[in-house]
Amino acid sequence: MSFRTVLVVDDEEPLRQLLAVILRDRGYEARCVGSGEEALRELAAHDYDLVLTDVRMPRLDGIALTRAILERQPGTTVIVMSAYGSHQAAIEAMKAGAYDFLPKPFKPDDVLLCLRKAEERERLTRENRRLRTELHGGFPSEGIVGAAEPMQAVLRQVAKVAPQKTTVLIHGESGTGKELVARALHERSPRAAMPFVAVNCGAIPGELLETELFGHARGAFTDAVRAKKGLAVEADGGTLFLDEIGELPLALQVKLLRFLQEEEVRPVGDTRSVTVDVRVVAASARDLPAAVAAGQFREDLYWRLAVVGIRLPALRERPADLEPLARHFLARFAPLRPEVRGLDFSPEALERLRAHRWPGNVRELMHAVERAVVLAEGPIIREEDLPDAVRSRREPAAGAPPAPGDDLSVKRATAALEARLIREALSRTGGNRTRAAELLDLSYRALLYKIRDYDLD
């Protein structure tokens, strides 16, 4: 990878002319402008591989220009120039996303070396991205298997959105693979080398979630014996994935909205804010527009998160992917039985997998295959190795009338159904309550309350 087109931005004409000569002598196409505003107009009209800008300029300085460029064209490489005494400003520009800074005064070789370093970085980034794609069979993230058109549409959307910093809201039923898609967005983005930080907003009690997200100062509360960085700061430069965003308490929704708008974090108990650069991806199995209508989720936060929405299809909507997914999980869990060679499904087992409705989606299928691999006595997974729910040949008819003499109390019938579903979910997950909550499409806190109410401990 080599840069060919360079935009030089500096309010001093002699320096612009010098840089133009240096760059053109080495085969670069150089265009020079005298202000940040002019640079933005030029970038809107033409594509440039690299922008070389001064930090100190009137009106729109190099820091603000860097932010504006990377917001509009995230793939552009920016290098800032700074004289002695303005190095701190150059560091601020790098925090805003600039790749490097070039100290003034400089020699021609200094400029060319800086550009070669940037070219090598870009070459390695593209090569790593290509290798990751090849390693994962053309899919943007390990674990995403989807040849059916509904998933292909999702993958095309991921490829289109990933390079941008745009906030994305992923919605779909529990178990459809929302975190895998969030990771794919990160891996296909210019932030791939930086952290991907995931937080389940439904698994952390509301009173602790704020300090988890934004951190706290020393002495902010009784047990705060030392300051703690929040997950938003841990994700600086990378991606922050907010899973089950619909479970976020209303009071914290206000603070998240402020963070998204201002890109600043104020730790609990601190008087200072910290600037962070993160790409936020959120996900929810809840119907967020319905939650907005019910007053349970802020409308302004919803629209701020849903700049781009990606809907994941349920497994029943992509039947062509069921067998490839089952075989994918079979290969993943085969090492659990190192003494067995040639693990495979019997025709009857495959038929039962195809017939099941998969209310828990891909996650339920993964757990079913893992269980079958562990329980199978030989190399062939039989129908009886599958979970009871999958082996059952009767699907309950939706809206079927009650049998004569049945209790018609809706309240008692609902409670009995909830208790049965919770028992089944806990059984499938081996008692793992976090995974059971995901299968049941409940928040972790709601599941704990129901376990207590139905005396299921």
Helices and strands in order, then pairings?
Layout (H helix, E strand, L loop, with lengths): L4 E5 L3 H13 L3 E5 L2 H10 L4 E5 L7 H11 L4 E7 L3 H9 L4 E5 L3 H28 L13 H13 L6 E4 L6 H10 L8 E5 L5 H9 E2 L11 E2 L1 H4 L4 E5 L6 H13 L1 E2 L8 E2 L3 E6 L3 H6 L5 H7 L2 E4 L10 H12 L10 E2 L1 H9 L5 H15 L4 E2 L6 H4 L18 H19 L4 H8 L3 H10 L4
Parallel strand pairs: 1-2, 1-3, 3-4, 4-5, 6-13, 6-14, 7-10, 10-13, 15-16
Antiparallel strand pairs: 8-9, 11-12
Helix pairs in contact: 2-3, 3-4, 13-15, 17-18, 18-19
Q: What are the key terms here?
A:
Helicase, Ruva Protein, domain 3; alpha/beta; 4 domains; 46% helix; Rossmann fold; five-stranded parallel sheet
Structural class label: alpha/beta
| Radius of gyration from CA coordinates | 27 Å
**If you consult CATH, what is the topology of the largest domain?**
Rossmann fold
Major sheet:
5 strands, parallel
Mean of the pLDDT scores? 83
Number of contiguous helices: 19
| First-last Cα distance | 60 Å
- The top-level CATH class of the largest domain is Alpha Beta
User: Going across the major beta sheet, what is the strand order?
Assistant: 2-1-3-4-5
Task: Give the overall silhouette.
Answer: globular
